[in-house]
Amino acid sequence: MKSLKYILSGVIILAILAVGWWIAAGQSKDQTANGNQKSVQPTQTSSPNVKKAEYEMEDGVKVFHLTAEEVKHEVSEDVFMKGLGYNGGTPGPMIVVNEGDKVRIDVENDMDEPTSVHWHGLMVPNEMDGVPGVEPDSPKIDPGDHFSYEI
Length: 151
Fold this sequence. Notes:
Layout: H1 2-26, E1 29-31, E2 37-39, E3 55-58, E4 61-76, E5 79-86, E6 102-109, E7 146-150
Parallel strand pairs: 4-6
Antiparallel strand pairs: 1-2, 3-4, 4-5, 6-7
């Protein structure tokens, strides 16, 4: 049951990340009817009630900070339940990047059990992805520890 919790915590944020990243990457290029590529202006990615993650630039790398933690989530007016989230919310913040960006996502585990992040649908090296126990090289972030995903 505990392993299911940390897998689900990663799934929540990953769905948002994958959609945001997919939209941002897909908006940068388009093809004309004859197959030639044409440039299109990127569109602004948004998701209702989800904040964009802040980032810092360090030597040409976009650096995002996520804290995996237990959060209080309002599921209906004045109805709350405990959940797992990032940076105080569930879903966590939306990470928006452009095709070709170098990205580092520093994840700190403030939960009482291990966690990891699986980047659904994104082409990333195995040592930056996967589910611990299934993919041998996958990172597992123990309670109180952190890991830097470099994509």
